Amino acid sequence: MQRNIGRLFLLALLALLNLTNELAAAPVTPPLTLTAHTTRAEFQDALDYFVDDAAAMTLAQAQQQRFSPVRGAFKSGYSSAAIWFRLRVRLAADAPVDWMLTFGPPYLNHVTLYVENPRAADGFERREYGDHALQEHLPSRLFASPLTLSPERTLTLYFRIHSSSTLYLDGAFVPLEAFGGQESGATLWIGLYLGALLTLFFINVLAGMWLRDRALIYYAVYVLSLFFLHSGSKGMSNLLLLSDWRMDLWMGVGVYGGVIGSSLMFDQLFDYARHRPLLHRAILLLTALSLIALPFSVTPYYSQHVGLFIIGGQAVALYTLGMLARRVLRRRAQPHDALYLWAFVPPAISMILNLLAVFGVMHLDNSVRDFYLVSSLFHLLLLNFALAQRIKDIDANRKKAERHAEEMERRATEQRNFLAVLSHEIKSPLGKISTSAQMIALTHPDIPEAALTRVGRIRNSAVGLSDMVERILTSEALAQGMLTLRREPVALTHVVDNALTALAEEERSRIAIHIEPPDLRFEVDPDLLTLALSNALSNGLKYSPADQPVTVRASVAHAMLTIEITDQGVGMSPQDVARLSAMYARGQSASGTSGAGLGGYILYSAVHAHDGRVQIDSQPGVGTRLRITLPPHAE
């Protein structure tokens, strides 16, 4: 008796366990009901799901698994797993039987729809969808499948999704006769939004190029990434019949372009290169890696790394928002900083919500997805107000700089004119002083030696001042483009000899001249080239030890005249060489030595007037090699 009772208890326990398993395996979500009044029935809240981690199950195997309501949070993206969704739909007695099932998102790679059909071999009709098979179904924004339903009968549908991107599913049942009108209306509004994005992109590109403002260019890149992202997520790219790797690349540009554009824009707006150099380098690294990763968006590896780049871009945005909030709270913000702050708060929140949903922390539903689209609109409006203020400030600063430059140019012109007039007025008295001193020395040979020496000094000083005046007048003529070249074929030895006449006898003895061939002739302005060589030789002698020579070498090769002047003097630093061509510029090595700083300017100007080039190789304490290259004169 006790044995029979034990058997009965065991059988009852097994039956209870079997009933529990059946109840657990039974659908927990009620079917979606379609009535005569239904114009559009969203089905995402009527879904159950199961995750196939190995992505290897058949429909028969998936039917044996325990499905859970999709309302709960699950990891919905960037995974190599496949997700099975189950949907049950019931048609009311008075409802039409012909419906259009639309579902997405449209950038899913592989979607298999199983429609319950008693006439099929295994009880289900199989239909293939996904952006890799776009040519096989209707050219609509979302994947569309016509269905004929039976009244008062529950139809079971299974969706298998295997994709490298976000793995959620949504869609709706629309009466067949209403499908065309609804799609046309949705396409119109989405098209207007995307058209506004493209318009905004071109406006900011042109404004950035006009103002030479990189922040506007990077913002334009960010806006363009939104165009790619939203056109892909809303299915407009499907209307272009993009499929296979093209659709993957389209969405990849939207994701990586957003990371690159927004990060570089923040970097420029807030000058992280100067204020946050470490963050600046991190942004450049993120940009480079994003460009490298973009081609991988067409491969299965996309799902393994894209989340890290989104998190990196979001980290830059959150840091910037924190910095802006700190400025605003401390009342240290610029007038448009508050607009930047409020402009980026909504998209930052929506991106965080999407990331939480993708990684399974919260449920990814229409409220989360649509908030991103609405927040983008809000973001673009506020950010354009802020950037418009930035453009206004940049334009005001540009005009202010132009006015300042005009004022400085006016003052410089007045100073040059005054200096030219003064130099011209001084030149005549200096000539008289020099001539008078020379006449005294010639007509009074019996004056004491000491007095004769002083007369010589007077003459030398007058000649030196006259030479300086000549340099000033020549430099001003070069600066204002008023000097006309008078080219003529001339022997180079003649030009060099004329350059030496301004030097003292002991200085001329230190010049070593090598001209090959000796009778070398070239078409130049002899006076201007003589002045240039005179300045170069004078500087080489001035900054060299008295016992060291200055070498002049000249030759013609490939119709180009090359003149090299080499000394073993004090040399110059790279900074001194860089500013040698400026008027009145003197380097560190010139300290303690007399001069007006015009020699280098006259040299460069004279050579450039001949369409030539000046190259200076110099090292402090070693010496300087000056190379002048002149091309042949072309009539």
Helix content: 40-55%
Summed over residues and divided by their number, the pLDDT gives a mean of 79
Strand content: 15-25%
Number of helices: 17
Q: What structural class do you assign from the helix and strand content?
A: alpha+beta
Distance between the termini: 129 Å
Please outline the major beta sheet: 7 strands, mixed
Instruction: State Rg.
Output: 42 Å
Give the arrangement of secondary structure elements.
Elements: H1 2-25, E1 32-34, E2 41-42, E3 47-52, H2 59-63, E4 68-69, E5 82-91, E6 98-104, E7 110-116, E8 124-129, E9 143-148, E10 154-162, E11 170-175, H3 176-211, H4 214-233, H5 236-239, H6 245-269, H7 272-275, H8 277-293, H9 302-329, H10 337-358, H11 366-443, H12 449-479, E12 488-491, H13 492-500, H14 505-508, E13 511-516, E14 521-524, H15 526-542, E15 550-557, E16 560-567, H16 574-578, H17 599-609, E17 613-619, E18 623-630
Parallel strand pairs: 1-5, 13-15
Antiparallel strand pairs: 2-11, 3-4, 3-5, 5-10, 6-9, 6-11, 7-8, 7-10, 12-14, 15-16, 16-18, 17-18
Helix pairs in contact: 3-4, 4-6, 4-11, 6-8, 6-9, 8-9, 9-10, 10-11, 11-12, 12-17, 13-15, 15-17
